[in-house]
Amino acid sequence: MRRVLLLLLATICFVPGTALAAVPSDPRVTAATAAWATQPLYVDPDYTSLVDATQSAELLREIEAAPVPVFVAVVPAGEWFQEEGDTALLAGWLAAAHETPGLYVVMDGNTTYGVEHEIAAWAPSSSYAKARQSMSGQLSDYLEDLKVDDRYDPKPARTEPTQPYPESPSEPERFTVGKAIGNGVGGGVLGLLGGALLAGIVLGVAGAVGRRRGGTQ
Question: What residue ranges are annotated as transmembrane (predicted)?
Answer without folding.
Answer: 189-209
